[in-house]
Specification:
- The protein has helices at about 20-35, 40-60, 70-90, 100-130.
- By secondary structure, it is mainly α.
- It has two domains: about 15-70; about 70-125.
- α1 (about 20-35) packs antiparallel against α2 (about 40-60) and α3 runs antiparallel to α4 (about 100-130).
- The radius of gyration is 18 Å and the shape is globular.
- It starts with 19 loop residues before the first helix and ends with a helix.
């Protein structure tokens, strides 16, 4: 079981690593070019991701960057937990398609749990060995 990863507090983002949005937009463009992402979804995602990046900049004073002092796996897991809750809320509020998103989000979170548990076990073993 994860040691309070769901509620782990992390520092405010900092640093001067690579801006993540630029890499995401490059990858989305490649997906649109090889037709694994449709043009309507591509246009919507690019706009929405840019809008979210600007919102994050206003909130944190920086864009999301690599090596920012936070654990991105923890951030991802916490955001997935929120998305699971919102997806269930949508289902309970009467959406017929919410179920498919709920199942997908749970599956993604479960896969990340395995990765996080492996990391914790490795870190605990390293700490014990060092003592």
């Amino acid at each position: 079981m994860l040691d309070s990863i769901a509620t782990k507090q992390q520092p405010a983002p900092s640093g001067d690593g690579i801006i993540v949005l630029e890499q995401v937009l490059r990858r989305l463009r490649a997906m649109e070019e090889n037709r694994s992402l449709g043009p309507i979804a591509y246009i919507s995602l690019v706009k929405d991701l840019k809008d979210r990046a600007e919102m994050g900049f206003k909130k944190y004073g920086t864009y999301l960057r690599t090596n920012n002092g936070r654990d991105p796996q923890v951030d991802t897991y916490q955001e997935l937990l929120d998305a699971i809750m919102y997806s269930m809320q949508t289902r309970l509020d009467g959406s017929r398609t919410a179920g498919q998103f709920f199942e997908l989000l749970v599956s993604l979170a479960a896969q990340l749990v395995y990765s996080l548990e492996e990391t914790q076990c490795t870190e605990k073993s390293s700490t014990r060995s060092a003592v």
